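Hi V.,

Quick status before I head out on leave. The structure for the redesign project is tokenized and pasted below; the design run finished overnight.
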């Protein structure tokens, strides 16, 4: 009888333990999904601000070029976008618009560019910090984020361009299960998709740049070969450039477009995300500047 009571006690303890584990698991799952949804809402709000800046910058260009006669409907729409009084004259609008843009920049000082790819979920701010992994699990507003924010390598030349000395800009983003961040980069590991893919657009304060994807490579991080890829930020000359490109396209896990191989001195960007083909795997998509 005593043994039966003991067995019953043990069974009840196991059931209670399983219920606790199940409850914790459900809580963590719900919390994870809520965090993802909150991240996406924050990015959506920032996208709206970004579109506001783009629209106003176009108007500024027109005004600066001496075209000051806008339709009243255009001025009204512009005023609504940047919260400026409708009766403000065009010259004053320029000043207030610039102040608004400056405020947004000051609000997110680490935001150096915007990266987007047409017909994909990639449409995010691009962050930069001297602290390499600052945005690995941090949103653009400085709050904790499960998905983090795409960021430039801390050693990257900050999207600086030099016709005589091409650069490499490394950009990192998570491979999220819900398809956000850089998860869609895995589609590029298909020659047909790679060939039909639209350019990668990098929008900066002064100008925009387009990059044509030409290769996708699966590598293992923390190895000699990955150090060759992730430890490169510039080239010593044409031969060095050609050697690097050949190293990548001749990799055993590379898919590339022969007709789109870049030539010196095209600038290059590398988008990197996690891959699960091996432990510490990475998928990298390479693109060269076309505009």
């Amino acid at each position: 009888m005593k043994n039966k009571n003991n067995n019953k006690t043990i069974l009840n303890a196991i059931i209670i333990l399983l219920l606790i584990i199940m409850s914790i698991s459900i809580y963590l799952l719900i919390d994870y999904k809520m965090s993802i949804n909150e991240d996406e809402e924050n990015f959506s709000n920032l996208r709206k601000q970004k579109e506001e800046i783009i629209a106003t910058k176009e108007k500024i260009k027109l005004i600066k070029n001496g075209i000051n006669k806008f339709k009243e409907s255009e001025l009204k729409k512009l005023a609504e976008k940047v919260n400026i009084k409708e009766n403000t004259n065009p010259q004053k609008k320029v000043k207030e618009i610039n102040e608004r843009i400056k405020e947004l920049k000051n609000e997110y000082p680490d935001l150096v560019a915007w990266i987007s790819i047409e017909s994909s979920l990639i449409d995010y701010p691009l962050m930069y910090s001297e602290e390499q992994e600052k945005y690995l699990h941090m949103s653009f507003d400085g709050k904790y984020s499960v998905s983090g924010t795409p960021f430039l390598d801390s050693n990257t030349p900050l999207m600086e361009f030099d016709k005589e000395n091409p650069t490499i800009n490394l950009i990192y983003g998570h491979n999220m299960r819900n398809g956000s961040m850089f998860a869609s980069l895995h589609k590029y590991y298909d020659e047909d998709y790679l060939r039909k893919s639209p350019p990668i657009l990098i929008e900066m304060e002064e100008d925009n740049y387009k990059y044509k994807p030409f290769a996708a490579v699966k590598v293992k991080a923390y190895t000699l070969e990955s150090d060759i890829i992730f430890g490169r930020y510039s080239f010593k000359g044409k031969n060095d450039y050609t050697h690097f490109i050949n190293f990548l396209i001749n990799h055993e896990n590379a898919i590339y477009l022969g007709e789109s191989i870049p030539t010196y001195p095209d600038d290059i960007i590398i988008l990197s995300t996690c891959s699960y083909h091996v432990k510490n795997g990475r998928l990298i998509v390479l693109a060269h500047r076309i505009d």
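Above is the designed sequence. The beta strands are 111-117, 123-127, 151-152, 168-172, 200-203, 208-220, 254-256, 268-275, 281-289.

G. will cover questions while I'm gone.

Best,
W.
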